[in-house]
Write a structure and sequence with these properties.
The protein is mainly α. It has four helices and no strands. The relative contact order is 0.14. This is Nucleotide pyrophosphohydrolase.
């Protein structure tokens, strides 16, 4: 699935199930909350913190999907074509970072 299709799926879901989009500030707060949930899993599962019993059943993929859902909501409600923006960003990163990363001794 491409990003444009994902944006359309989210928009259709909002219209069918969500009544309307939350406002941009609410969605930004929700995005921060969802990223925090991802951070908690990463810190406890892959970092040095011990994982609480209540966190062991959490699915990292589902939490990342929650982040993606809110990002797609924000893109839709602010009229951002995320596919176009992503393509431009990848092109810029490829030009800017190719040699930089290959010449980074920390990555060898």
């Amino acid at each position: 699935m491409d990003i444009q299709n994902a944006q359309l799926i989210v928009d259709n879901w909002i219209k069918e199930h969500g009544v309307r989009y939350f406002n941009e500030l609410t969605n930004m707060a929700q995005l921060t909350e969802e990223v925090g949930e991802v951070a908690r899993i990463i810190a406890r599962r892959y970092g040095e913190q011990s994982e609480k019993e209540s966190d062991k059943g959490k699915d990292l993929g589902e939490e990342l999907a929650d982040v993606l859902f809110v990002v797609l909501c924000l893109a839709n409600q602010t009229n951002v074509d995320l596919q176009e923006a992503f393509n431009k960003r990848m092109e810029k990163k490829a030009k800017r970072d190719h040699d930089r990363h290959h010449n980074n001794d920390k990555l060898k």
